[in-house]
Batch of 2 targets.
Target 1
Amino acid sequence: LTCPSCGQENPEGARFCNACAAPLAAEAPERREERKVVTVLFCDLVGSTAQAERMDPEDVRALLSRYHERVRAELERWGGTVEKFIGDAVMALFGAPVAREDDPERAVRAALAVREWAGEEADVQVRIGITTGEVLVALNTRPELGEGMAAGDVVNTAARLQAAAPVDGVLVDETTFRATERVIEYAPAAPVEAKGKADPVAAWKVVQTRSRYGVDVRQIGTTPLVGRERERTVLTEALARVKEEGSPQLVTLVGVPGIGKSRIAWELFRHIEGGSELVTWRQGRSLPYGEGVAFWALGEIVKAQAGILETDAEADAAAKLERAVRTLVADERDAAWVERHLRPVVGLESGTASGGDRGEAFAAWRRFLEALAALRPLVLVFEDLHFADDALLDFVDHLADWASGVSLLIVATARPELLARRPAWGGGKSNALTISLSPLSDEDTARLVHALLDRSVLDAELRQTLLERAGGNPLYAEEFARLVAAGREAAELPETVQGIVAARLDLLPIEEKRVLQNASVVGKVFWLGTLASMDERLPLEQRLHTLERKEFVRRERAPSVAGETEYAFRHILVRDVAYGQIPRAERAEKHRLVAEWIESLGRPEDHAEMLAHHYLSALELAAATGADTARFVERARAAGRDAGDRALALHAPTSAIRFYETVIELWPEDDAGLPELLFSFARALTTAGDERSEGALEHARDVLIAAGAGARAAEACALLSQLWWY
């Protein structure tokens, strides 16, 4: 066994390295691969080879070590994974192994941070290239040992952009540009000729950021509020009650990403701004994946009240905090007590031993906020509370329970994952209310899309596509409308939406994510029995119950398969993204398993279309990966033919044509069933009024005659006569 830490060879069966005592894996982990949309960053020092010629080797090593260490730190600070260093070049991935909603933005900001450090502190120059696209990711590799994580054209393109970038310049591709143009300022750059590509790669040069990270510059209120009037009223009435009664209220807005939680909170802010009474508004946001320190959102609230900036020196921040506390808390001893407990919240040393009494800290923080609310009504907004650590959740709960004698409205926004973690959140409190935001109706979504596109009338097909893709989600509707306004196809998936859905999937435990991926192969609707046939290792009922609580799926009350428990994806885009993550060879095998489960139900003619879809998909995917397709071909042909026959019998000639066209390509020319198949295809074309029907009937007639099928040939002649007559 090779030690992953020091490279020392060890005898088989050893549990710890003989050289460094690091634990050794007993066996290689199961290889896990996924297709992911990632952002790839390549960075290289400029002129390092010439510089090295003039330097002592030890100085060169010291320079590169400092460069590697700082670049790694900046990239990882922004959520990147450093895959490898090659001399003075570095490659990093944003979105693997775990996706975040804003990976392209993080990559660009990381590039700017590296460039700033290189120019101001290291006195070196860099070139950086960034691309976004789909790659195959090996999830359990160890980049620190030089194991490659990602493969795909997007990696090569990033390297080409890096090589073409100007000195101290950052070039990005079109996909990265589209995903970040609202937060990053760009200048057009000359297209980059890339080896192996037919066309030059469109490129943009990064100029500067448009805003501080985490600030939404999309102007929340520029789109009309549709279908959320009741929720807005609940919030404004809660504020009125707080003012009237002088007691705290907790309102939690729960919903999936993009459903409108932040918009409703913004509507409350606008209501306050338009009122005559002064109200203090403070808000903080919990960062994902543990990127912030504990109580990050509370820290943002305290910093805003004290006027502490991220660029303040420690002494200046401490002075501002002291001034803010003593302005609110008159008693000298109380003020010192409150300040001492607030210092760690804003990133200052507390001056006392760590690990103190949490109850005392909660009381001190509450005292500070009560003093603030005593001046005038106070609204505290805790955004993205599903990302918060348990300690912050406990404090918000404590604040709602124990604050008294002040007008305090606490507004929390969270995804359903919060209620999966804390099912009793807000329960049992007379002053707490949880609002679950449902998708917009088709009528409201259509109103929103019409307003976004500034059109009174939409093509019926486009309107239906937009409604289906948005699925009642206002943010998705906005992004799809933006897509259409830019001249792109509504069937595409906007980079922003892809990022949101992928990030939410990557937050799930592996077992829950695997359930969704397996279900995505079945379709928008799936059954418990199908999932069990695909992976017997998974404890499905509990996993599905949890996914239902997190609003990924819903259980259907009237299953379409007798004796089966039926589920459906709540949003088709979750299904699409989960399906797209599965490597093609694995997808082919899963389609085969689903088809075999459908066959096990009996009466295959009732499920002909489903059988055809899964067998034909398995065949296509297996062929694309170069795998042996012999085990798929015959069943795929038969299923496709049966599906065509069923569609034709049900007077759906267009569907029949689609199935027949596919299986004719697969049918052997010397097979006895081919003449009948060609005749069925010709009949479907004739029924549909397709212009190809005459030629297809003539071909079918000739083949039937050659096969000795005189009766069928006569039917073909009769249909031809009807065509000629009419």
Note: Residues 442-490 form one domain.
Target 2
Amino acid sequence: MSGLPLLSGPPPVLESTRADATSCRKCSKDFNFLLARPRRCNHCGYMYCHSCTDFQALMPRTGAEMGYDAVNVCGYCIEYLTITAGGRAHLRSLTLPKLKKYISAYNIKGAERAVEKNDLIEAIMAAKGDNGCLTPAHESYYRKYSVPDRSNVPRRGLFSRSSASTNTEPPPPPPRPHQTPTYEFPRPDLAPDIPLRPTSQPSTQQQHSSPPPRPATSRPAYHNPNDQYHSQTHFPSPQHAGPPVAPRATRPNQGPRPSRSSHNLNAQANGPPPRARAASSAHPPPPPGPPSVPPPSLDQLLSMTSESVGALPVHALKALLFANHVNLGQGALEKSDLVKKVIDLVEEERRTRERRRLEEEAEEEARIEQQRVMMEQFQRQQRERAERERAEAAAAAQDEHPTPDDSASPPSAPTESETEFIAAATPSPPPLPKPKAIHVERTGLCVICQDEEANIAIVDCGHLAMCRECSELVMNSSRECPLCRTRIVTEARLLRIFKT
């Protein structure tokens, strides 16, 4: 009996749930003693057939005996009982319309001020009692107002179907829409606005001549198009009726008649065309909704506060996470979860940019220090060269004008000890300093640009080999992993990795 919903107790017997029902409340099947016996639902208390009460729930035993018994419930109640027995995880997996329908069926208070899905879940959890079921007031409201009643639908019993098919008459045709009567000529091909045929073909005119005119008492009066509407039942009296109209073949020529185009123009001027009248009678189209706001970029997010991020709509949050390859996770996500993921993305991006700024400053300081050392070494070499050139010039001048003492005694060569002393006294150039590194070793770089840290992983092959900018370049060009050439079908196969 594991997995069955729990009942709070046997339902009360109300006036509307007595056993005198003649048909099933759900499928309107007629009850009879042999084939379709009624059975009561143990939650709402109404009578149903055996097919509509083929669901089970746990009923607590009464008296000193402990435990539960499996009893039958109807198809209406099993859906709501399953929601009642579910926990927060089960309620979070349901859709918003289903939760709102459940709250409306049991008249649960506190849900009218709900803003998010968690508010509805908290209202449902607060309405439960200590036994895990709803309070008797909620169940009484459900039995009285929320159980559908389809017993008034035409019954489909075994004998009522044949009798109903023989006794029922076809429904009357729907009334035709009221239309303004217009005058129609008995023969459209001989309408008055058609020009007369030449008189050289009397046999043809006689063949197509109109039949004799009807009596004036049975013919409706001809109205001018400019006249207002008159009912079709108004016939002229015999004493006021004019003489019958002669057939077309025997009518004398009465002058030129208006052409078809002038008649149509007059008709269009007197009233709007049917298409225009239909368009004017229809409802005006609804105004277009407000244009969707594009999601902000990462640069804009860095300057926004947490409250501003929480005010963004859900579609903008999802678009941001999808554009930055952040996995949304399994199951239904609340807006608070989306906001937390976006805030984590912003914090990670802020730390990455700060780390990049520090690295760039360190590299710039190392470059400046290296240039300073190189400049000092170059200046020292220039000074040594200038001193050597002066010494050589002085020695050459002394050779050209030798003194008596110099000629008598040539200069003695320096001894080995004097050479070592001079070499020790001469300062050696300092070694070039190595640039300072902020980190011990920069590993995990993007294999494409070798400048940024790799934070985009490919789900299909598992390689963490690209940064965000290079992943966009790859998706716009080859759409392959840069290491193993695995095909990247969609951007959803890229996953953002947050390093801690």
Note: The chain has 16 helices and seven strands.
